[in-house]
Design brief:
Structural class: alpha/beta
Order of helices and strands: EEEEHHEEHEHHHHEHHHHHHHHH
Distance between the termini: 29 Å
Shape: elongated
Number of strands: 8
């Protein structure tokens, strides 16, 4: 689809002389078996020659057969098979029943027939498309074989689940392109496999691996627990993953979550071992800081530090903030900070392998990550 907003087809009012009771579910009188249809307020062209009826009791869409056939070989095949034998009509139009949801089909038709642009303003500035609408465009674009709709959708999805580490860490920039939550990650995984877009998978699996590690904020802390003292918001998040993901995907998430925790634990130990550094200028004080840190840190503190949900959060500041009064020398502070940063970038490089994936173009070393951020 064009990045510029096409001129939107205006919805035309229906001339009274050309209809016989088509408004708001009134029974139609044309055809062998007249049916009741409710017209959609946005996608209903009075001179359209076919009516698409989605799942459920939802408004139908009166559209132009030739436009759909020209854009989609799948619609061409559907109409060739169903319209000649269509027994049910509304207002003289054959009614074609589709197994698509009404909301997804409407989003798709608004783009295909009405010139709706969910991606850009007419000035060229990006819209943040909702994940629900993005998923609808990709799925129905793929189903009805309209590749430009699929390509545009996948390109936008890749902006939210990028290969580049700096882009991933900048949630504000990613949100400019897509409005999504962690709960959308399982659908992103499904879309990645549907469209053969493996670059989306590492960060989508990563998002799933961090779900449930931290309960979502609630207005009242007491509301985080059910009335019967049972499941918490965290439990619901984990249950949602179990119910949504395929067993093979869930296996990847669990193994990746464990790998992320191990990686963070190794990073924590490496930062501790960096002090005193080879070029330490105040070895006695830095050793005291090291020992005090080990003595004063609680087990719960270390559990939080190696939480997979904090996979890329800095550890250097967290580890040494409790010993500010016995500050590290400059050499030790620099060594600790650099090891922390490099190992975090190394975790990013290992992300595909943690989820048993192979992704072409993914950075191999922490130097690759730094170079891409400077490009």
């Amino acid at each position: 689809m064009s990045c510029e907003r096409p001129a939107k087809r205006s919805r035309l009012s229906t001339p009274d002389s050309d209809v016989s009771g088509t408004l708001d579910g009134a029974s139609c009188t044309h055809g062998d078996i007249p049916v009741t249809v409710q017209e959609d307020e946005d996608v209903w062209f009075w001179d359209g020659d076919v009516i698409l009826s989605p799942q459920g009791r939802a408004p139908s869409f009166r559209v132009y057969r030739d436009l759909l056939e020209r854009e989609s070989p799948v619609f061409r095949s559907i109409f060739a098979q169903t319209i000649p034998d269509a027994a049910k009509t509304a207002d003289g139009c054959p009614v074609v029943y589709l197994n698509d949801s009404a909301s997804q089909l409407k989003t798709f038709l608004l783009v295909l027939l009405c010139g709706e642009n969910y991606y850009y303003e007419h000035t060229g500035y990006a819209f943040s498309i909702t994940f629900e609408n993005l998923s609808a465009l990709i799925r129905l674009g793929h189903k009805y074989q309209i590749q430009d709709i699929v390509d545009d959708g996948v390109a936008r999805l890749k902006r939210f689940y990028p290969i580049d580490y700096c882009e991933w860490e900048d949630r504000a920039i990613r949100s400019v392109y897509v409005t999504a939550t962690g709960a959308d990650a399982p659908e992103a995984i499904s879309l990645a496999y549907l469209t053969d877009t493996p670059s989306i998978l590492p960060t989508a699996y990563l998002t799933c691996a961090t779900l449930g590690s931290e309960p979502p904020p609630v207005e009242d802390e007491d509301e985080d627990e059910d009335e019967d003292g049972g499941e918490t918001a965290q439990d619901h998040s984990l249950l949602s993953l179990v119910r949504t993901l395929a067993p093979s995907d869930l296996e990847r998430v669990i193994s990746g979550k464990l790998a992320l925790g191990r990686s963070r634990a190794v990073r924590l130990l490496s930062i501790l071992r960096a002090v005193p550094a080879p070029y330490c200028t105040r070895e006695e004080r830095c050793i005291i800081a090291h020992q005090r840190n080990l003595r004063e840190c609680r087990v719960d503190d270390f559990k939080h530090a190696v939480d997979s949900a904090q996979a890329f959060e800095p550890l250097h500041e967290w580890l040494w903030e409790s010993v500010d009064e016995v500050a590290l020398c400059g050499a030790c502070a620099t060594e600790s900070s650099q090891i922390d940063e490099r190992m975090a970038l190394g975790t990013w490089c290992e992300l595909p392998s943690m989820f048993n994936l192979s992704v072409e173009g993914w950075p191999k070393t922490w130097r690759d990550v730094l170079e891409s951020s400077l490009a």
